[in-house]
Predict the 3D structure of the following.
Amino acid sequence: MNKLAKGAIAAGAAGILLLGGLGTLAFWNDSTAVNGGNVTTGTLALSDAVCDGGWVYAVGNAGVGAPVGLIVPGDTISKECTFAITATGDNLEADLVIPAEVTFTSSPDAPTLNATASASYTTAGGVTGATVTSANDGDIVTATIKVVFPFGDAALVNTNDTQGILSTLDDITVSLAQTES
């Protein structure tokens, strides 16, 4: 037999031995179950609002604190509402918010008006700001809501067509929205 034939036979035998060993690789393993246990979630809620009877003229207007009679463009009106906060949970953080824009719905023949809105918040303990944590659980918060009756121009609603109309300011929703802490 020549060298070439002997080499080919040796290579073939080595290949067969290697292929035969593919199924014999062994390693140990194990697993176990981990008890999931109980998890209790926190809570986040506002009680129903208790508000002043009507709107008053806000700081910066003539007649500040007086009940709103006949509103004119540029007037800022305000109302105070109180809520009880329920806020429980590790690492809980939430913000009190209202929409930036509210609507005055008018009688069928008059235009609907959009107005800007804002609010400031104070707790009974004197804490101010819109951020709530579990430390505020049970606090009473007062929201001072302000709405600005908009000016108009020739291209927009609220020119002379808003004089002498009866409008209703639509409900304003105060929300408590969780943020990442």
